[in-house]
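Standup notes
- DV: blocked on the single-chain target, sequence here:
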Amino acid sequence: MSGDPLNRLVQAKVKDPELVQEKRRIIVEAARELFSKKGYHATTMRNIAEAADMNLASIYQYLTSKDDVLYLFYMDIQKQWAPMYHTLIEIPDPVEQLRAYIEAVLEVAYRINDELRTMYTESRHLERDSLQSVLLFEKQTVETVESILDRGVEQGCFRTKDTFMAANIITYFVAFYAMRGWNLRGRYTFSRYVKLVINFIFSALGVDENEREAAPRPPETIMGKGI
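- DV (later): unblocked, structure below
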């Protein structure tokens, strides 16, 4: 494992970092659909090589195991949320900061729903070092939400006695669509779903009703499709 536990080192025999990055992108893209359709265990490295239009020996020039592929797949999903954290820093109001977090997470969850479901169902197969790195990312996300809640409690925006527990529940709740979206499609538009989730969370946090009902953005700019 590398010195940075948030970024486990994936070994490669090829020394060109740009080539390694590009080949890994192709490998992960090929594995993404296979993991979603067949599951992690049923997918072989030979399957991945064929889908990536590479020979099996070539794949092992850029990583060392199928665990590496699953880990890189997970890290690729995590990158989808990276812009959100930069945006959150710029929002001074804790209520609007939490709203922006919920919107951003739900938007990504809607856009890559199949990949998220695979991530949640298959991450248990990660080896120890990979799993530790993944769980640290999850912990970091909870800490981000907790810091928003702490500021909100200090400013009188939120009412909760345990911001750590609330942050864990919120982090889990906004991932709800990945596992239960099949039961929501056709009943709610995406914008309606976002509004309901925000209202549910804000209600639990004791947010003023006027702020709770504020429309975050025009629905079409969030996703523009129904769920």
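- Follow-up: Residues 128-154 form the longest helix (27 residues).
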